[in-house]
Design a protein that fits this description.
mainly alpha; Arc Repressor Mutant, subunit A; transcription regulation; RNA_pol_sigma70_r2; transcription; DNA binding; RNA_pol_sigma_r2
Length: 190
């Protein structure tokens, strides 16, 4: 955690809210505004979402739930981004789940990790919609690098031709699941 972040967290813990807010209204607000404006939002939307993110941060810190290993800016951005996605869905706006133009410095590597975690969670969510046999077959192919002959033996298929047909069917079905979920597809591509 950056020194500024430690000071801000300590200010929140000790009730020196104005000192904490002086920092928070500089850099994090600018980044959140930029994201929301690039994703179908207005300046008022951005300010409202930012206020909500600040409240969440204060609650986390005061309740002892804030992990000080998190980057403070990254934490606020993630909360704001998730909040904006929910709001935009409710308003039926089309948003880009991308981070084009968001400056990610070496100090915000944690934000990159959070984004990758969300992408992985999205992938797992879609993957779990598959039948168990398809999950096994695709896992054997993608993660275990098994041959069709090995898959046929593991799955109890007649021969590798059956394994190939099943693999093709499962791959096609998974592609349909992903393509039917446009937001997830966009998010996974970034």
């Amino acid at each position: 955690m950056k020194d500024n972040s430690k000071i801000i967290i300590e200010c929140i813990r000790t009730g020196k809210n104005n000192e904490a807010l002086k920092y928070l209204y500089k850099d994090p607000l600018r980044k959140i505004r930029k994201f929301i404006l690039m994703n179908s939002g207005t300046l008022d939307d951005a300010d409202d979402v930012f206020q909500d993110a600040i409240i969440v941060l204060f609650q986390y810190v005061k309740n002892g739930k804030y992990n000080e290993e998190y980057d403070l800016d990254g934490f606020l951005f993630r909360v704001a981004k998730n909040s904006w996605i929910d709001i935009a869905r409710k308003k039926q706006k089309v948003i880009k789940a991308s981070f084009i133009g968001f400056d990610i410095s070496d100090e915000t590597d944690h934000l990159n990790d959070l984004i990758k975690d969300e992408q992985l969670n999205t992938f797992h969510f879609l993957f779990n919609k598959l039948e168990d046999n398809c999950k096994k077959i695709l896992s054997f192919v993608v993660f275990d690098k098994k041959s069709m002959k090995e898959i046929a033996e593991l799955m109890g298929f007649k021969d590798e031709k059956v394994a190939k047909n099943q693999h093709y069917r499962c791959k096609k079905y998974f592609t349909k699941i992903v393509s039917d979920n446009k937001e997830a597809l966009t998010f996974l591509k970034n």
